[in-house]
Amino acid sequence: MNAARRLAALVRESLATARSQPVASLVTLVMVAGMCSTVLLTTGRTVGAEQAILGSIDSAGTRSIVVRADAEAGLSPSVLENLKNIEGIEWSAAFGPATDAVNAAIPGGAKVPVRRIWSDFLATLPVPDSGEFARSAWASQDALDSLGLSAPSGGLIGTSGEDFSVQGQLNTPSYLAFLEPLVVVPSDGSTESARVSVLIVIATRPDLVGPVADALKSLLAVDDPSKLTVTTSEGLASLRAVVEGTLGSYGRNLILIVFSMTSVLVAAILYGLVMLRRKDFGRRRALGASQRLIVALLLVQVGALAFFGSVVGSSVAAAALAISGDPLPRPDFFAAVGVLAVFVSTLAAVLPALAAARRDPLKELRVP
Fold first, then answer.
1. CA–CA dist 275, 270 (Å, integer)
2. Is the link from the previous residue into 329 a cis peptide, with omega within 30 of 0?
3. Closest CA to 31 of 268, 254, 331
């Protein structure tokens, strides 16, 4: 309790000292605010653009591996068992050949492709576990629109004579967009005579696409490898790494320069402030104030001013970026800049604070 009271008294004294010197306090606050706004309007704009670019690249699927197989290739759904031996796979699924189907209520309506799906990760898609509904289908919004279904329910008739019942809507992930309009029917579990026309594998990270693809090719176990086409997003993954590395390096260098210059200026201002207040520090030392107390007063004062300055600077920068239409960096970037600004400003105040604490009280009190 006593420690908390002493800390509260220290904070009150530091704030009172800051208010008693409005010019010096305002200059420090403005400098920290300018530091934060400069970083956010330059590096922050770059970070926001980087996030937008990476988001655009990621939306194209930087972790996908797509294997297309002709019927003569002999690719079996049992390949999914082989994939369990590969580390770095987040999701995988095998799709059978497409079979055209129409809305049972509109015999002459538009045809959509219906595909069997095999996957150990069906829980990531809004479809039931394999084997529960042998003729239950899940359709994407594009497929529902093509079939003329206003709701995800109804009957389908395939050109091969099969009938299916639409049980729900499928929210198609970006890596399955090329299969649209998509209607999937969970497999009944049989794999002996079944054939796969499309195999999709999603790596856990973009940099694992190449290694996973190499391992995948050796485990496909097909009759005719020449009937296979393997497409990866390794090029997009490499582009992503280049963009992230280049823009990230530019941002780090600029932050280092801005914060270094500002810390020097803050230290110079505080040292000048110490020289102007040397009689005040002399009185405090003569009245029994310890060197540690003098240092703490100055550091808390600067920390408080830096905190308010970072809030002001970040708010101004956010408003400016929003008005100009530039993408805003994530909130954690704003928080990191503010915390770093307070830390750098407080660190810059250490030397002036030590200089103030080590002044000889008798000597300073003789100063006219």
1. 9
2. no
3. 268
Instruction: Locate 278 and state its tokens.
Output: 């040397």
Write the DSSP string, 276-300. HTHHHHHHHHHTT--HHHHHHHHHH
Alpha carbon 210 to its chain centroid, in Å, reads 23
Question: Alpha-carbon distance 178 to 187, whole Å?
Answer: 21
Q: Does residue 93 sit in the same domain as residue 119?
A: yes
Same-domain pairing of 32 and 98: no
**Residue 49 near residue 247, CB atoms below 8 Å:** yes
115-125 pLDDT, tens digit per residue, is 988 886 665 55
- Give CA–CA dist 86/219, Å, rounded: 9
Specify the residue for token string 């095998």: 94
pLDDT of 142? 92
Q: Are residues 94 and 198 in the same domain?
A: yes
Q: pLDDT category, 88, cuts 50, 70, 90?
A: confident
292 and 329 fall within a common domain: yes
104 and 193 in a single domain? The answer is yes
